[in-house]
Amino acid sequence: MKTKTYLFLSCVVLGILSCSPPRSIINSGKVATKNQVRFGNNYSLNISSSPITQSAKGIHNLADNFSGKDSIQFTDQVSHINSAVLAYCLDPIGTNTDLYLRYGLGHRMDIGYRTSGSSHAVDMMYQFLGSNENYKNSDKGGMYGSIGLQYGWEKYSFSNKFNRVQKLLDMNMSRRDVSVPLIFSKSFGPEERSGCFSFGLVYSHSFVTYNIKAKNIYIQNNNDVKELVAPVNAKMDYGSYGTFINMKVGRRFIFFNASLAAYYQNYGNYPLLGGGMASLEGISIIPSYGVQFNILPRKRKIPKEL
Predict the structure, then answer these.
(1) Which fold has domain 2-21+28-295?
(2) Are the C-beta atoms of 107 and 124 separated by less than 8 Å?
(3) Which pTM was predicted?
């Protein structure tokens, strides 16, 4: 029975909390040309070392000790559960499906929008290296380079009907992420007509707000009287450093891509119920694959001379 409860809770936490900001890098060093449209979908897997360590201990303690209880005495085990859920929210393990759209503004700039579950992001890229024409108008190739700015936001929502962890902690969280990717790419054919190989670096900074209002966790004061544990309201921020490679292969209007990104983040120290602190850091590995479609602008018709 304990094993079944553990597996059930693990699946619930993984399913509900596996939403993270779009961090797979699928762009190349060449931005969309003027009036060009790029769109597609991407499937990614987020694997993080910190949530794995924290969650195993926390969920196991929950399954063994707190399932079905109406009143809970605050212990170190409650703190472990709090730390586990917080770790998952900061960098959850799970799969994501990204939908994205990009549009070329001209002057070596394009803009984009991405969504993944409850996460959303907008960005702008500027190309500083290489040609910015499409393959119909140019036979140039070689290296391309661009730098961008992405702003992402997300608000976590948990299901009280199925999530026993949420009933225990009554926690909610929102986050904002600012990312700066530096991307270089080597073209396959003129103007990436057949795809490209890309690589680069990315820095992200995240701003997190969360609160915990447990309704049935108590602590005994100095007079041996039970008091409801004090709520937690906190604002934190931390930086992430990443690198990535990706490859895009196709022809003209349709391309298939595969990417691998890795991030290191020191999340810092986070307040927990009961006055404790959780110190979290870890490495995230994000493999992804997907398909992209390109729509080139129509050529202007030159009026015939009379």
Answers:
(1) Lipocalin (2.40.128)
(2) no
(3) 0.82
